[in-house]
Amino acid sequence: MNECSVAPRMGRQPLTTRAALSHVALRLFLEHGFDQTTVDDIATAAGIGRRTLFRYFPSKNDLPWGDFDAELARMRAFLAATDTTVSLVDALARAVVEFNRFPSEEVPFHRERMNLLLNVPALVAHSTLRYAEWRLVVSDFAAGRLGVAVDAIEPTVIGWVFLGASLAAYEQWLRTDGSNLIELLESALLLLKEGFTSGELPTVGPGGQA
Amino acid sequence: MNECSVAPRMGRQPLTTRAALSHVALRLFLEHGFDQTTVDDIATAAGIGRRTLFRYFPSKNDLPWGDFDAELARMRAFLAATDTTVSLVDALARAVVEFNRFPSEEVPFHRERMNLLLNVPALVAHSTLRYAEWRLVVSDFAAGRLGVAVDAIEPTVIGWVFLGASLAAYEQWLRTDGSNLIELLESALLLLKEGFTSGELPTVGPGGQA
DNA sequence: CAGACTAGTGGCACTCAGTGCCGAAAGTAC
DNA sequence: GTACTTTCGGCACTGAGTGCCACTAGTCTG
């Protein structure tokens, strides 16, 4: 009948949120290490049952990612809203940069999270599945622009190439203290545009800066 | 004293080999599915103890890969033996093609294996760790040629880009019955050289040079 | 208010991957 | 034979992830 909707939901209220759990887990991972932290530890620290935690996140590996699906949706929307006069590569480059822009107070936090995701073997492996979703967003857009199927070779390669450039920038970012992620991303994406074959590689502009 | 060496080894002889176990596992995975096959099943089918199996392979996920380290060593050697007059990109392209050449009777077998590796989520995730080793071979070589550190951005991007192209070719190969892996790889690698899709991405000058 | 309904919670028991320990088995060397 | 070396594999354990089910905390209807 009535679509209750708005504020007063139907059944019992959730005790916590994905974001809160992700935060608690991240803190424990940083304190004691990913492998040393059990799911029980996290559930206890969050004040919920272990069984409940697995209803918020399908696996321990997903905890650091927080609400990645929402981020992906943002990126997809950004691409969809991009003017068609912008070239494919530029559109993707802008979207990638936008996707990785964070309020400055969250940057150190994000840095630690990425540090885990790119260094803990279990997370490195698992991340592939998230990256695949990310690549799909990219190659979906590319396929639309190029007028070919999503699973054609061009969109697929483009998906991989943009992912590679992004991760290379991330690795660089984590390696160098005080470096600027956005600038590194732009450099890496420029490398793509300019093409890396020619004689050598195009020299990238003066790297660092705040 | 005497370094026994040659044929008669010291202690007890191994009951089986990595290759044999990989083969048995692959057969079971194809028959019943990866997730439906337990490590116990594999050990039993191979006639060894479960504990022993874990001495041959560190995890269930490693079984389909067989002796990947040996393959990587081959690729590394191939690159090391490549004439320095061959351009960086060409050298890598040749090595990648060589790395993926198999005797024709093994092709269907290899196809099934890659089908698993690229489709079973657990394996897709785990594969990342193997790919990382592969990328290291590529970026190591690139770093040497470019005279920069392995962890500089150029070799890193190159590693990712070649991996992406290879995997794109593999996906295409698995998708289309009767297609030729080597040809698909060459196409994908050509895309890299040419800079994919004229109209969109900038065409890169005629690659070659020393 | 009671009673129906709905959705989140979490305990329990289970499966399965992976590991440490340790004694047994199967070889070689003397 | 004994000594030594290496592989084997059983046993018990940890920890992730799942199915089941009763319980809790809400809303809705009358």
From TrEMBL, chains A, B:
Residues 15-75 form the HTH tetR-type domain. Residues 38-57 bind DNA. Gene3D superfamilies: Homeodomain-like, Tetracycline Repressor, domain 2. GO terms for molecular function: DNA-binding transcription factor activity; transcription cis-regulatory region binding. It comes from the Bacteria. PROSITE patterns: HTH_TETR_1 (PS01081), HTH_TETR_2 (PS50977). Keywords: DNA-binding, Transcription, Transcription regulation. InterPro entries: DNA-bd_HTH_TetR-type_CS, Homeodomain-like_sf, HTH-type_TetR-like_transc_reg, HTH_TetR, MftR_C, Tscrpt_reg_TetR-type. This is Mycofactocin system transcriptional regulator. It comes from Cryobacterium flavum. The gene is mftR.
